[in-house]
Amino acid sequence: MACVRERVEFDLDDPVLVEGLPGVGLVGKIATDHLVDQFDMTYVGSVDCEGLPEVAVYDEDDYTARPPVRIYADEERDLLALQADIPVNRVAAAEFAECVTDWVTDVGATPLYLSGFPTQEDDPSHVPEVFGVATGSGAEILTEHGIDTPPEQGVVGGPTGALVNRADTGDLDGVCVVVESDPQFPDPAASKQLLDKGIGPIADITIDTDTLVEQAEEIREQKEQLAERMQQASEEESSQAQPMRMFE
Fold it and tell me: At the topology level of CATH, where does 3-247 sit?
């Protein structure tokens, strides 16, 4: 049975939860990792789910072993982050989405889901486009912050799609911000757009994203192994937005 295990008490008024599951371009993970690191967010809980790999992760210069899917909080900024170091497979996706969504509802958070839209763009000066979809009355949030509607009919797949679906069936006010991203490699430039155009305005926080560009190559190298695993995974395990025509 899936559950969110709170390990530290925290006090938030009207938080935004930023979801960072691995997906195409690792855009959501890179953006969420950046938030956790920049704001030195506090590890407050983990997601336990039968379909998730029973592994422990660790970091450099730190003895602490932690579960692969964790929740962080920043009381000063009224911010929550869902950080994952492994893909959520299709067996676990539905139970995982139900568990996380029930917890989000209990803490009164507005979920901000993140997804990449695979594109092949050869122009190095191209700035990745961002658009959004919503559940409940989340469209008001997107409109308020000038986030465009989708350019065509499409599908948000993978575990992020399961979270959006669950929010919709539960009539939870939420948004999913989608960015054009590299379908093969980690894409820090696309993650910067998510932070600048989506996360920052919606969560009402100021984020320094210059380092994502300055350290782009280093970030790609750090995330390359996970990106390779995501490429090998089925579409059900990789969070991404795709045009509906791909399913016709």
Answer: Rossmann fold (3.40.50)
Q: What's the CA gap between 122 and 36, in Å, rounded?
A: 31
pTM, to two decimals: 0.88
Domain boundaries, the chain: 3-247
The three-state DSSP-derived secondary structure of the chain is CCEEEECCCCCCCCCEEEEECCEHHHHHHHHHHHHHHHCCCEEEEEEECCCCCCCCECCCCCCCCECCEEEEEECCCCEEEEEECCCCCHHHHHHHHHHHHHHHHHHCCEEEEEEEEECCCCCCCCCCCEEEEEECCCHHHHHHCCCECCCCCEEECHHHHHHHHHHHHCCCCEEEEEEEECCCCCCHHHHHHHHHHHHHHHHCCCCCCHHHHHCHHHHHHHHHHHHHHHHHCCHHHCECEEEHHHHC
**170 exposed, middle or buried (CB, 10 Å; 0-12, 13-18, 19+)?**
middle
Identify the weakest region by mean pLDDT among 52-56, 106-110, 148-152, 222-226: 222-226
- 244 — pLDDT class (breaks 50, 70, 90): low
